[in-house]
Amino acid sequence: MTHAKDADELREKYYHSMGAALTEEGDLEEAVVFFQKAIDIHDTPYAWYGLARALSYAGDLAGAVGAMTRAIKLAPGIPEYYHERGTLLGTLGRPDLADDDIKKAISIDSNYERIDTIRRSVRIISEAFTGPVVPGDVKGTEVRSKELGRILDEMDNRMRQMDDVFDKPSCPVTSCPAYCCHFTGKLLLHGVTVGPWKLQSLRESLREKGPPEEDLLEAFPLAQAEHCESLFSPRDIIPRGGGASVTFPRQKDCRLGRELARDIPKGQDYRTLMWISENAKPCIFLTDGKCSIYDVGGDPSLDSCASFLCMTGFIFVALKYLGFLNGEAVRLKAMAELNDIAVDALIILARDVYGSEEAAASNEEIAQELKTAIEHDRLNHEAPCSAAIERYDLLKVRHESLTDRLIAAAGQKIARLFEGKP
Ligand code: SF4
Ligand code: SF4
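^ thats the input. predicted complex w/ iron/sulfur cluster below
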């Protein structure tokens, strides 16, 4: 690639990544500007898609339909483009056209028939596994009662335990060709950046054993861009050669290709992973589907890469934690089948366990009792506080036996999915 093309690619990726970050932050006016700058460099479907989303959130539905139409023209095989244009057209009072688009999305991916259930289920499962265990208005509360302190500590520990489960090195889908380590372009939305400690140990190792650092790592000088702090973790911004920069792995020359790209997993919100297309290239550290960086330098892994989990990876981590992962089936099944199992298992867990009416009601009761105990503790009412803690403990035991029962029943259904039975 020529130097000028290289710089263009970097800028395009930066503009589009910024557009996405600003959309998340709600700065829609700026987001639109960034997507347009990205499009001025490369007419990519994902930048038009991003522009369509920013315009629709800003209330410009007709503009959003126009941008989504352009995205569809450039990438006619992506179901969510049709689905989202269909939703926009429905809101604009064109149910006939909306219907055509929704049908088209379903014909490409039948999961679009239940997309609302999928997205709701993802929210329920994320909340159950990685959401705050301690209710927001209780977190960090100073309490007098030792018993209450014990309860809050237990909640904190559970939160830390869950962080460890969903943290590095995370994905148990051993048969996946590690799509998450393939990417189109350079600046990466999912944050494949090399933190300072890993960089230091990598450099030491490369100095001793080679190859030269430049063969494996690339740096993005932050002086070339505004708002970079929205894209990168501050700890990954490292002083270098008189300015700050972010370091990330280079890519190999080979492409992912149509065959493998066909079964690409979705993101955790069931959206296409924007940085992966059939033209995506693997990270230089990806060897035989595994990250070889674990063997380079002293640190076990790169935090930022290892913390990315697609929908399938995320659900399979949850299944592993619950003891429902059938390792043999995971080894033998194709990625497309594993993606389907992940979606079905997600819906079972959300519907039958974590989002079930029984579990939600029981959770609500427990949270209420905890708040009552904290309120009494704040007012220094010892006896009512102890009584509330006693009720809390009782409810907690009941809740645990309820969820154990629901989880066991869900486990049987999930086991059948791995066996290929309905
Ligand atoms: S996180 Fe997803 S894409 Fe990455 S290795 Fe796991 S299943 Fe594959
Ligand atoms: S450094 Fe490793 S985990 Fe990160 S993108 Fe590259 S191969 Fe994947």
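The chain has a mean pLDDT of 86.
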